[in-house]
Design goal:
The chain is α/β, with parallel strands linked by helices. 39% of the residues lie in helices and 22% in strands. Belongs to the anaerobic coproporphyrinogen-III oxidase family. HemW subfamily.
Length: 414
């Protein structure tokens, strides 16, 4: 078995079987990385204080919304994830204030997975000890690479030594659940470079590694450098080799692949991300954060000042909302489920939607199995190694004719 996901309990849905999941977006960084197109702003203490005050007002509005759709106040949280941005670029006092706000607004238990993202260079033993004592029990460290050349190309501001120090400090603080984020396929990176990176990461004995292929996004410094000819793209064959080496080396080290880009020791899969991959419900707070509540999906405005001004007027900060149609809900469940090494549990799918996969998509799965892209085992449908390489094509076979119905949220006149 790849992991012990209990489909019968279906913890992904607030209404069926609480608790829920909470994501808090901290939109500040010391410096934006050259490859990053996430929403983030240069840190300054004044904006950070205003953001924390806005977060409190947003929680008050969310509590009203949850009650209006039939959920209780002080909703129980199975997972909490504070991401960014760089949450740990905030002062320790402000991070602890946000954690206190979360704990006073929602119900957390000893079993709640509570993750904070951290970048090397923004954490020390004192900060980590304080986070651990405050109830944070999982740390996700943005290592990205273990050689100076690649770190510089990616525009990271930390050193390899700072990553090593961060992991050691986290262990000393008491953390026994640490993730390392890594990126492969950087310009100038060879398969040998990547294997060295993986070996360095393995030496630190993390419980979890997320290894993502570099995506070149529009509007980033890295994209502009490539367009000017200052750098060259990593060859596609090299990227494929790196992906294959990732699985081989990490599984040999006891980190089992449970999702296309994620590896964990037994029982250390990221429970928060599993909610997303099972197309469950979640609440998102902060600029650019997304929420899925029942058949509605919301996205907050990406603009910090607009986020704050709307909340100051007692208005929700959503930029848009959409109704997730039953057809699209089924497609998203298939799409996300096939990312998992365990695959899509067919009995669970039928229990959730009231029809089987073959009822909805007659003959599609059988044809993809015959073509060698999918396999059925242990009651689940999953990608083969061949299917992983053409996963977008496989997923496209299940695209519904009806899409989600999205509407923009009106901005009040200023």
């Amino acid at each position: 078995m790849v992991n012990n996901i209990n489909y019968a309990s279906n913890y992904c849905f607030i209404g069926d079987n609480p608790p829920a999941s909470l994501y808090v977006h901290v939109p500040f960084c010391v410096r934006k990385c050259d490859y990053c197109d996430f929403i983030s702003f240069s840190y300054n203490s004044g904006d950070a204080e205003r953001y924390a005050a806005g977060l409190k007002r947003e929680i008050e509005l969310i509590e009203i919304e949850l009650i209006n759709v039939g959920y209780e106040k002080n909703l129980s949280m199975s997972t909490v994830f504070i991401g960014g941005g760089t949450p740990t670029c905030l002062s320790l006092e402000l991070i602890l204030e946000i954690i206190k706000l979360i704990k006073s607004s929602f119900s957390l238990s000893d079993n709640t997975e509570f993750t904070v993202e951290a970048n090397p260079g923004t954490i020390d033993r004192q900060k980590l000890q304080s986070l651990y004592r405050a109830g944070v029990n999982r740390l996700s460290i943005g290592a990205q690479a273990f050689d100076t050349k690649t770190l510089n190309i990616l525009g990271r501001i930390h050193t390899v030594e700072q990553t090593v120090d961060a992991v050691r400090a986290a262990r000393a603080a008491g953390f026994d659940n640490i993730n390392l984020d890594l990126i492969f396929g950087a310009p100038g990176q060879s398969p040998a470079d990547w294997r060295h990176c993986l070996e360095q990461a393995i030496e630190l004995q993390p419980e979890h590694i997320a290894a993502y292929g570099l995506q070149i996004e529009e509007g980033t410094r890295l994209k502009r450098r490539l367009e000017r000819g200052e750098l060259s793209l990593c060859a596609e064959d090299d990227q494929i080799q790196m992906y294959e080496d990732t699985a081989a080396l990490l599984e040999q080290a006891g980190l089992k692949k449970y999702e296309i880009s994620n590896y964990a020791r037994p029982g250390r899969e990221c429970r928060h991300n599993l909610v997303y991959w099972h197309n469950g419900e979640y609440i998102g707070l902060g600029p650019a954060a997304h929420s899925r509540i029942k058949n509605k999906r919301y996205a907050n405005t990406e603009q910090l000042n607009l986020y704050l001004s709307r909340l100051a007027e007692g208005l929700p900060p959503a930029a848009w909302e959409e109704t997730v149609t039953p057809e699209n809900d089924a497609f998203e469940t298939i799409f996300l489920g096939l990312r998992l090494s365990a695959g899509l549990n067919l009995a669970w799918f039928k229990a959730r939607f009231g029809y089987s996969l073959d009822d909805r998509y007659p003959g599609v799965a059988r044809r993809l199995i015959e073509q060698g892209f999918l396999e059925e085992a242990e009651g689940s449908l999953r990608l083969t190694s061949r299917g992983v390489n053409v996963s977008n094509m496989v997923m496209s076979e299940f695209v519904p004719p009806i899409t989600c119905l999205r509407t923009a949220c009106k901005t009040p006149p200023s």
